[in-house]
Amino acid sequence: MAISTTITHVVLTGGIGSRLWPLSRKTLPKQYLELFDGQSLFEKTVARNENVSTKIIVVGNIENYKMTNAIMSKLNKHFTHIVEAVPRNTAAAIAFAAFASKPDDILLITPSDHIIEGSDLYNNALWRAIVLANQEYLVTFGIEPTKPETGYGYIEFENENVIAFHEKPDFETAMIYLKNKKYFWNSGLFCFKAGKFLAELEKQEPEVYKASKIAWENNTNGFLSYELSLKIPSISIDYAVMERSKDIKVVPAHFGWSDLGSFESVYDYLVQKGHPIDANRNIVIGTSLHTTFIGVKNCILIYTTDALMVLQKENSQEVKQVYQQLESIASPLL
């Protein structure tokens, strides 16, 4: 068993953030919005992992690669940029990073649009994952739930052994998970050797492996072919590998975490950071115009130059339906 000293931070930047429309657009997805202590989530992600990693690979897409280049230039960070011509989900995105690495390199996979707090707890979890990755395990991170969340998948575990992965539950099931203490949120963070992941991908999803390999081998300065990319089956790393491999471990983590996947989570984060809030817990995002709420509670008003949305915080998941409706009519507001 080779012990790797090369730890590569793989940043996945392909998300659109449709549940955060109208703030998040195809032309400026949520990970690039400078809403968070004057920084973007992308910047925070790079900074958070720089003390652990020795290299950086960013896997993005043709619509956002210039934004990535601008930020990495500002940060004066050397990195490898892989630019997808068309989204093919996380199994392929991670495969590209693995093909760009040496087999014994450890890949620390992180989305670019998460908020993580508690640096010591986070770093402790990373180093534990690196130890397990060096033992040839594929490692995922479970986040201790703070509420009965229905928007996340869950990992059922015993110590560091995964018993089962569970889809997003209804509220009653989420309550059971919360009380049980053996069900943690599935974070979308991973750690493993590049070669180990590729071997498992080839075993579990040979079509994804083969088509991704061909696309990578024909890249031009990190840019992937549209035609070859279309031949890659679109499947997540969870379905392709993590839920099927026998060499899985979970690091149960206790750091503060949110994928900021809805305005409810953005609301909670901003209020925690001292964002203005009225007596009925209503907030405004995106404008300094005087705004008054009468007769409503827990509402969010989101203002942009070309769109205005008001929503009940608890209905935040329904924003995606608005996005899909606009998408169906090819609206320029996307």
Mean pLDDT: 93
Give me the number of helical elements.
11
Distance between the termini: 49 Å
**Fraction of residues in H or I helices:** 25-40%
Q: Which term fits the overall shape?
A: globular
- How many whole angstroms does the radius of gyration measure? 20 Å
Largest sheet composition = 9 strands, mixed
Q: Low-confidence parts lasting 5 or more residues at pLDDT below 50?
A: none
Q: What's the SSE pattern?
A: EHEHEHEEHEEEHEHHHHEEHEEEH
Instruction: Assign the structural class, choosing from mainly alpha, mainly beta, alpha/beta, alpha+beta, or little secondary structure.
Output: alpha/beta
Oligomeric state of shown chains: single chain
Beta strand %: 15-25%
The overall strand count is 14
Brief write-up:
With 334 residues, this protein is an alpha/beta fold. It is built from 11 helices and 14 strands. Strand 7 and strand 8 form a beta hairpin.
